[in-house]
Every structure is written in C-alpha cells, then in structure tokens.
Request: fold
Amino acid sequence: MLQALPYHLKVRDHFAQQATTWNFFAAVKTKEEQLAQYKTELLKNTYKFDEQADAGIYEKVNKAKEKLGLQQLPVTVYQAQYTDEINASIVFLNNEAHIVFSGRITQLLDEDELLAILAHELTHIKLYGMLQGELETAERIIMAIAGNYNSDAAYYETARLYRLYTEIFCDRGAYTVVGDTKPVITSLVKIATGLDKVSAESYVKQAEEIFSNDNGVKAATVSHPENFIRARAIQLWHEKQEAAEPEIISMIEGMTDLDQLDVFKQKDLLVLTRKFMQLLLKPTWFRSALVTGLAKQYFDDFSYDDSITLEEDLVEMISASHASIKDYLGYIMLDFALVDGELEQMPFGWAFQFAENLQLNEVFDAIVKKELQLTDKKLQTHKQKTMAAWYKIKEGEKEQVYEEKAPVQ
Reply:
C-alpha cells in the first residue's frame, strides 16, 4: 500500500502551523487561474495524443489509473515539440492531469517501461490526493519559498529533499502498477542515458558497489535523486517494504552537513548550539560582559544554565557528526576563547579541556593551529600554558559539566 513518506508529513506539519501562508496556498483560486493559459500553451507547443488514434498509450494510462485508484481522473498525454531532451512530466490543475513526453521517449521505451513512466507520473497525482490535498499544498508552499532569491538556504534544501522523496514515492507507484522493479529501473536509466538497452540487474549492482565504496554517498541533484539511489531504493523496497525506510532515508539525507541543512536540521543544530554554549560557559568565571555579549549575538535570548551537565549521548552524537559540524563547534570554542583578553589564558585552557571532554580535541587543535598560525611545537606550548592557567582555578561543584556520581559502597 502506498503511503506518504515521513518527510512529506514533516513538511506538511511545518507549514500547516503557519495559518496565513497555508490558507493562501490552499485556496482553490491559486490553482484554477492557471488552467486556461496552461492548456493554450500546451496546444501551441505539443502534439496531443488522440484517444482513438493513439489507443495504446491511453490503455496504459487507464491501467495505471485503475491500479492507483485514480479512475475518475481526466488525463491527457502530449508530445513536446522543439526539444531533444528525453523526459516525462505531469501537471495537475483543477483536477485534470496533463502528461508531457519530451524527446524520443515513446521510441526508446518498451511497453512495460512506458507503462512504468506513465504510472510514475500519475503517482504524483496520487500523492497530491492524499490527506485531502494537504501534501500538494505543502509542495507548492516549499517550492514557492525556495524559488525566492531572498529565502534562507535551508528552504532550498528542504525543497530539494521534498522532491527527492517524491520521486522515491512515485517509483513505488510505478512498481505497484507494473509489478516488477526491472521496468522501473531500466526506464529511468534509458531516459537518463539515451541508451536503447540497459540491464536492471547490472545497474543495481553498480549502485551497491557505489555504496559499499563510500558510506557518505547521498542524493545531491535538484529535481531527482541520483539514479543509482532511486534504483537501489526501489530494489530495497521490493525486498523489505517498510523495513527499508531507515536505509533509504540514510541514502537520501546522509549525515547532517553544515552546508546542506534543511529547516528541520537547522532547528536541531540551533538546539545543539545552545546546549553546547551553555556547557562551555557553565564556569561562572567565564561569564564576563564580553563573553555574555558574544553569546547574545548567537541567541538574543541566551541564558546561562547552572544545572546543565554533559551527557554521554551528546558526546556520542557529536562524535558521529559530519566533519563540518565538528568544525563549526570548534570555531564556537575559538570565538569564546578569544573574545575577552582580560580573562587571559583561562578560556583557552578550558576550551582545550572542553574539547577533550567532547572528543573534539583533534578538531580544536587543528583550528587553533590554523587560525593562530602556530607550528606544532608552538601549539603544544600554547596548550600547556593555557591549560596550566585553567588548572589553577578552583571551581565550585555546581560549575562542573560532568554530573557527580555517587561513590561505590
């Protein structure tokens, strides 16, 4: 049974909380006004397949509609003119579906592959119809925001991921209609390469080889996932169904990269940053006016937390983080180590110790060496002097970042 993917629901829930934006995009008029103009442009720039003259195409459309539960959906298929690009796309306006083929797609694909492509495109409509059309509304919102040049990069990344998950979902729809992974895989490879003959088995093996060689591989394209990820995803879903979801999510998203944060990972990173800073700034001697001012530049509402302790799960999470996240945290430590000269060497000494507590010592050492332009020898000297200064401070128990453990009886 086809179900919306978790990421679709996360995006829907995120924007559903923004009532003004949601209600504007959910309004029917924002869709109906486009229909007449779109149809006119289609007729000017395409050949419209006729239901009698091109009965084979519409037989496949009807088979896909029946399998997907879209029997009442009006569907028209067109062949685009003036382009050699091999592709298929669908537009859904005012409860009508318009599928457009580009290039020699009808000559390149065999019968099962053409059925798979039609089913894939119609599954977009299946997704749009789920949850009273809320997912279609969510898609138009995130695409509109991401398309605005003033938007935060996180919205662009959210839109990219939303589309990637949508392609994965639509491949499942094609598989549901065709009943075989091979046409789903060979059709997408043929469209991407223009080859007349391809092997689904060989391509899946190629995908497996890629992932066995690089655990960090993830989807990186804008409108579609990498084809080897789509091929592997549909094969995994064929073999494991819902149990394949964690592995597929890992393929799509990989580890959190500082340069590819969606709105959800951005929020998670803000939570991590605040907690990280509260731990770093727990010692009361560290809370000078300059340090507090810097903390307020990160968060207007920043506050110190005397009760916070360093938990093992945080250490494990940071240890497993992407290198860009570790560097980011390292530069936060450097910021606070340098901000107040009157604290002399103590902030640097504590930062070195704090980095060690979080298993970030190698990262922090490299950052200090680079930014202060130190040789290896001078770095070690600097580290020894500053840590010696920090060791002289007698901190109260409440300032410790580790929670005190009861003595063994």
Remarks:
- Residues 6-253 form a domain with the Zincin-like fold (CATH 3.30.2010.10).
- Residues 24 and 321 are 38 Å apart (CA to CA).
- The chain has a mean pLDDT of 89.
- The chain has two domains: 6-253, 263-399.
